[in-house]
Specification:
By secondary structure, this protein is an alpha/beta fold. It is built from seven helices and twelve strands. It has a seven-stranded mixed sheet, covered by helices on one side. It holds the Pfam family Lactamase_B.
Length: 254
């Protein structure tokens, strides 16, 4: 994991987090709760680069996130990390066409061929307008960078961000984003949910989910802020309790 370095400089913000509808979690780190499915999007500012975490549920939502990021920083998003292949997290990705896109190894396969058909069907089933789903799926490009194990992004000014392939769990391709600092921030994707019980669809791997949360806790530590895929930010105790509940439900030994 990168050293706990608070960046020496971040972009000069042209508006505040609050003015743009975002929640500041740490210096240069924020998140937005998106309407509709209460999905989280994240933003990490460095002196030379800007990382977005997840892209929303449609091209329109992705474009709004891209515009808000530029309003906040005065610069474009240079990197995009996708935490897992569900429509409310990935269908806005084509709006970041000039960003370097990262996902857990295998995510490119999940977003191609039959996976695209299932993604579109899932989006419509959950209430996304069919035309919006068609538009986003047609424009979707698999991530260029496959993360196996850990990958450190240097955003400049001492800001290093760790991408970690911590799954399978919620899906077969769960990516966590860890931002060291005071406090450290862990973007968990839907491995952690606060606004409802963790959702285990047909692509979940329940027997491996507790181990994925153990990995999150080891990487983030006791004092980090944990950002769920849906809901309010939580602490390590919440993640540990959710881990224990999932272990009991799936019959995984402690």
């Amino acid at each position: 994991m990168p050293g706990d370095v608070v960046p020496a400089s971040v972009p000069v913000m042209t508006v505040t987090w609050e003015e743009s509808g975002w929640e500041q979690l740490a210096p240069g780190v924020g998140r937005r709760r998106l309407p509709g499915w209460d999905c989280t999007a994240g933003l990490v500012l460095g002196a030379e680069g800007v990382l977005a975490v997840d892209a929303g549920s449609s091209l329109a939502e992705g474009a709004r996130l891209r515009t808000e990021a530029r309003e906040l920083t005065g610069r474009r998003v240079t990197h995009l990390a996708l935490t897992h292949p569900h429509f409310d997290h990935v269908l806005g990705a084509p709006a970041f066409a000039d960003a370097e896109v990262y996902g857990a190894v295998g995510l490119d396969v999940a977003l191609a061929g039959r996976g695209r058909e299932e993604l579109r069907a899932d989006a419509v089933r959950w209430g996304l307008d069919p035309a919006a789903a068609d538009e986003a799926v047609a424009a979707l490009v698999p991530p260029r960078h496959a993360v196996s194990g850990e990958w450190t992004l240097d955003l400049g000014g001492g800001r290093q961000v760790l991408l970690a392939d911590v799954g399978p769990g919620h899906t077969a391709y769960d990516l966590a984003v860890l931002v060291p600092g005071d406090p450290g921030v862990v973007f968990c994707g839907d491995l952690v949910e606060e606004s409802d019980e963790p959702q285990a669809g047909p692509d979940a791997v329940p027997s491996r989910w507790p181990a994925a949360l153990d990995r999150l806790l080891r990487l983030g530590g006791e004092d980090a802020v944990y950002v769920p895929g849906h809901g309010a930010v939580v602490d390590a105790a919440f993640v540990r309790a959710q881990r224990d509940a999932l272990a009991a439900r799936s019959g995984v030994s402690e």
